[in-house]
Amino acid sequence: MPPKIEGMTQNSAQTQNTQGQPRRLTLMLTGEDALDEQGDNQARQGLPHERYLLGDKVPLAPILLLGQSTIGFDPNLEIACLQPVHLHATRDHLILMGQNQIDLTETESNKLLDAALPLLKEDFDHQLLFHNPYHWFIPAGPFSKLASYSVDQAQGRNIDWWMPHDTHEQGVAKRWRKLQNEIQMLWHIDSVNEERQARGLPSINSIWISGIGKLNDVKVPSALARASKIYGKHSLLSGLAKFCGIPVSASVANENLVGAFAWPDNPEMLWPQLASQLLNKQLDEVMIIDFPEGKTRERILTLPDIQKKSWMFWKKPEVLALNDLIQS
Question: Where does the source fall among the domains of life (predicted)?
């Protein structure tokens, strides 16, 4: 189990609040790639929020493994995340379909893994560490220096731009593509895909590699490290919560927002609740973290900041919508 961040305890944020610190909730929004970041014919690794939460090396695989399993592993071990995926063919390129669109069952995933496992063991020269229907984790071995992109970053896009590429050692990406092609041919004739296609479901026709890194490469931002509670459903959060020793919950508890860090799927639905707590002085401020043009922006908002200004002083001020605040 990794150590907690130095000097942090689960109750540190709550202790600070009792000592006169502002009662704050931190709200993070999902970031998107900025077009001007894609210079030199290569996109930057990691979505903006992935880089913010994990650091510039974006070691997704070990954090996901930490959150999804109870196994112990060396924090200096380079780990890769493999995912069964569907590549949708258009007229002149392939598009990666998101994991939430393929409706893969545990039985189907296990059968596909059984077919691919001999090839994986041979090329990676390691046993699998852990697997569930959508994520298979393995020591990266000869692929440890491969630069890759998460499914979240590459989904819905032409995969030519997002395929893994070499960094310090030439030929690694070519070796991965060879393995990927061999697995694709195996799965093409597998009964799993015959049955899926008969039910009108997309075939699982490829395998994706991403998140390569070490647990010791994770660099957690202070806004998360100092949280008393983490709220959100994203699979990254359970691993980060365990890494930091902070409780995590998929749903937001209205009575326990002070000192919390929230990354909700639909932040606009949570905003009225936060605005109400500011109005009722249950919260003093909300820190919003977003990523305009791919750059991290942190802003602390208090009650006057969220109220729409009006010359009609006798009317109760209106609360600005979250989208209005983001665009300002």
Answer: Bacteria
Strands 24-28 and 260-262, bridge-based pairing: parallel
Give the model confidence (pLDDT) of 84-117 as tens digits: 999 998 888 899 998 889 999 999 999 999 999 9
d(CA 270, CA 249): 15
Q: What is the pLDDT of residues 206-244, one digit of tens each?
A: 999 999 999 999 999 999 999 999 999 999 999 999 999
Radius of gyration of the chain (CA): 22
